[in-house]
Amino acid sequence: MSATSNKERMLAGELYLASDPELVADYEAAQTLVDALNATVASDTAALRAVLGRLLGHLGEDAVVRPSFRCDYGFNIAIGARTFVNYDCVFLDCAAITLGADVQVAPGVHLYTATHPLDAATRRSGLEAAHPIVIGDGAWLGGRVVVCPGVTIGENTVVAAGSVVTRDLPAGVLAAGSPCRVVRTL
Questions:
Q1: Which residues of 169-182 are buried (b: 16+ CB within 10 A; e: fewer)?
Q2: β pairing state of 89-92 and 114-115
Q3: Rounded-to-integer distance, Cα 137 and Cα 81, Å
Q4: At residue 79, what are phi and psi to the nearest 5 degrees?
Q5: Looking only at Cα atoms, what is the longest distance across the chain?
Q6: Known catalytic residue: 110?
Q7: How far apart are CA 16 and CA 119, in angstroms?
């Protein structure tokens, strides 16, 4: 059975229209919170956590997200305990983005769940899709890493700076490159 609303289709990984009024309202509400987060003084950790608590689906104990930070909806993002997200990260959360506990996310990391049809006519119609991203406990994503839709990165895996992760990575490896490949076991 196919989902009926565009939001339900988005969350189910089916083609949907992001211009749907419900999704536009969700996006605009999130952008108000993103703007508030990015305008908060970095030393006011209580205010930062309060805004993040309203924006994100889950914010684990002692997790840190440093502004500036961008996302689409926020409610699709779950950040585990003691996870650290450094400056200038972009999480396109049209599908779930799950970061486990004790994850290290370096500056400028981009996580993209959003994708577009390869067929030009379908793409021109405005339809898009999204596939979840999962980052396992203890993983470390180096500066300017890009993680593509539908990717899972295993526990304790390290992804070198500048890598573009297009496929799942197993637990406990060092991976690097564009496209990202396993270099060695840790």
A1: bebebebbeeebee
A2: unpaired
A3: 9
A4: -120, 125
A5: 49
A6: no
A7: 15
Separation CA 25–CA 17 (nearest Å): 13
- The pLDDT of residue 2 is 64
Other residues' Cβ atoms within 10 Å of the Cβ of residue 18 = 16
| The one catalytic residue among 58, 110, 116, 131 | 116
Q: How many CB atoms lie within 10 A of CB 87?
A: 15
Distance between CA 144 and CA 164 in Å, rounded?
9
- Confirm if 105 and 89 have CB atoms less than 8 A apart: yes
Retrieve residue 100's tokens: 């486990």
Q: How many helices (H) and strands (E) does the chain have?
A: 4, 20
How confident is the model over 111-146, as pLDDT tens digits? 999 999 999 999 999 999 999 999 999 999 999 999
Residue 88's H or E segment, with its range, is: none
